[in-house]
Design a protein that fits this description.
The structure is a single chain. This protein is of the alpha+beta class and 203 residues long. A hairpin with a 2-residue loop joins strand 3 and strand 4. It contains eight helices and six strands, in the order βααβαββαβααααβ. Helix 7 packs across helix 8. The chain folds into two domains: 100 residues, Rossmann fold; 103 residues, 3-Layer(aba) Sandwich (Rossmann fold).
């Protein structure tokens, strides 16, 4: 739980993600103590990805979600920018209910407030390093000259100077990870979500 003395930039309240057609029934049964996670899978054909997660993150705070492989870490953080819809619960960003946002407002939130470094990098193969890094700025309508300048600075920050015009398939896995980080840095978001960012080696 984030410090109560800090402004809560992210606040997650009672997040549940249950996969399956009978997800609401599964949550009710678990809350009532009638079924375990295994029972839900066997009897209701549902899988519990996240169970009643609540936390807050203050401005300037580094918050780490730890757990075993398959425990729901990636699923949980994808609720923050609503890449995954919760089965139950709510997410607030700077006091705004993310669940209640329409598609346009949600796109604006992702473009301006939240950056994300994906475990799988999610680089666009048809774009070079510079254009991958500057993509969020392009979406915002930033002029090309300014966009290239910011992208170059972010590329330098992750020690990939000279690789600007290379394509993702010309890079090692670790270098691709750094391009993903540079892309997030270039967007200068208020919130940076990182899904296992140190899983790959730097070289």
């Amino acid at each position: 739980m984030g410090s109560d003395s800090q402004e809560a930039v992210i606040r997650c309240e009672g997040i549940w993600k249950v996969f399956g057609a009978r997800s609401k029934e599964a949550i009710k049964a678990i809350k009532g103590g009638q079924l375990s996670k295994a029972d839900v899978r066997d009897r209701l054909d549902c899988v519990v990805g996240v169970r009643d997660a609540s936390f807050s993150v203050g401005r300037g705070e580094i918050f780490c979600i730890m757990g075993l492989s398959g425990s729901g870490k990636s699923t949980l953080i994808r609720h923050v920018n609503r890449l995954i819809e919760p089965t139950d619960g709510a997410v607030y960003i700077e006091g705004r209910n993310v669940n209640a946002m329409g598609s346009r407002e949600l796109r604006q939130l992702r473009a301006e407030k939240i950056g994300m470094v994906f475990q799988s990098m999610a680089l666009m193969p048809h774009r070079n390093v510079r254009d991958n890094v500057g993509f969020a700025l392009e979406v915002r309508g930033v002029p090309e000259e300014k966009r290239h300048k910011v992208a170059r600075e972010a590329i330098e920050a992750v020690e990939l100077t000279g690789w600007d015009l290379k394509y993702p398939d010309e890079l090692s896995g670790g270098m691709q990870q750094r391009v993903g980080l540079a892309r997030a840095i270039a967007a200068n978001p208020s919130i940076l979500l990182m899904d296992e960012p140190f899983r790959l080696s730097i070289r």
